[in-house]
Write a structure and sequence with these properties.
Layout lengths: L2 E5 L3 H13 L3 E3 L7 H8 L3 E4 L8 H9 L6 E5 L4 H9 L4 E4 L4 H21 L2 E4 L2 E4 L6
InterPro entries: CheY-like_superfamily, Sig_transdc_resp-reg_receiver, WalR-like
Organism: Clostridium tarantellae
GO molecular function: phosphorelay response regulator activity; transcription cis-regulatory region binding
Length: 143
Amino acid sequence: MKKIIIVEDDEVIREELQCFLKKYGYEVNAPRDFTNIIEYIKSENANLILLDINLPLFDGYYICREIRKHSHIPIIVVTSRNTEIDELMSINLGADDFITKPYNLEILLARITNIFKRIDTNFKTNSILNYKNFKLNLSNATV
C-alpha cells in the first residue's frame, strides 16, 4: 500500500483529502503539528508528499528544498497561490507537480496515479541486476 503524507494546515482540506485518498486505498498521514515537519517526513518513509506552500513556521518552499537534500520522494505542491512565479519556484526547488486550489479531486488523483505508474515502471525497468553470469531479479527476489 502506498503511503502519502499531506502537509496542509487547513483542517477541512486536510481531512477531505485524507478521506478521499483512503477511499482509493492509500495509507494517508496528515500531521497537524508542523514544528518538526521535516524530521517527521524523513521518519515516515512515505511514497509521496502533498505539500501546501502557506504553512505556519516553515513555508512549503523551505520544506521542499530540505526534503530534496536527502530524498527523491515525489512532491506535489497543492496551494492557493496561483502565480507563475509560485509554480516556477516549486518546480525549481524540486517539486514534481503543482496544482492550485480549488482543485478537482479526480484530477489530483490522476496526477498521483501517474507519478506512481512512472515510479513503478522505473523500478521494473531497473529491477534486474547483472553481475558476471548472475542475474538478480529484485522484484521477485530470484537469482
